Amino acid sequence: MKAKIGIIGGSGLHDPDIVSGAKEIEVSTPFGQPSGKIIVGTLGDKEVAFLQRHGAGHKISPSEINVRANIYALKKLGVTHIISSCTVGSLKEEIKPMDIVILDQLFDRTRQRQATFFERGIVAHIKFSLPFCPQLSSLLGRVISKKGYSYHPKGTYVCMEGPQFSTKAESNEYRRAGFDIIGMTAIPEAKLAREAEICYATIATVTDYDVWKENEVDIQIVIENMRKNMAAVRNIIMDAVPEIQDERSCECKNALDDAIVTSKDFITRGTRKRLDLLIGKYMAKS
To answer: 221-233 in b/e burial notation, b at 16+ Cβ within 10 A?
Structure first.
């Protein structure tokens, strides 16, 4: 089965019933098993693949998500665009709980995650100055604006390791640095999607003010706000997916062009086989 559009559901988006004719499939990868079975079906006239980031029942911690397997599996199904959803804490007064942020920048504070497909004898240096696809992000912004949700068209997301929330010292330092929101899952998803030459954009929904503001991180309030935000995210995705065009003019689609620096003569047969889905077209070039 094939799909052009991937949807990665994070905290608050677990229900794949936005997909019609849904079928669960298992996808194997050279990097192990994805977070769970992938649900493939249609949304409007688009073939879509839905993956729960944390697995069924939200059983996988942010640091334990096999992101390489998740992204590779979606690529294997033919996915060219990924819309991800995530819940975040706000680091600014004007970004309020229940607001939506379309991300345009990332700051990586993770420490123990596998963030590249390129290892074991092959090196690639992708451009990552714009970590989210501007075209896909712009489309999501237009849909959100039409629906009248309170949203911010850009924002810098600082990705912490987790699963614990921030200390006050950390939260206040992120505020001084000028970051907008904080979460635990955008890294390495965005990096790996770019290495896989997939357009990637994120709908970030705000659940709280993080711990810089007194008494703002109450897990029950966070969970309740997740549930309220889910309806908005579902509505956005349902309207945005049918508008995604097959033709791409962004840099995402050729992210590996000139990025692989290892001489072809030194790339082993095993590495070529493992990464053929990603590098095959470049290995065929003279």
So the answer is: ebeebbeebbebb
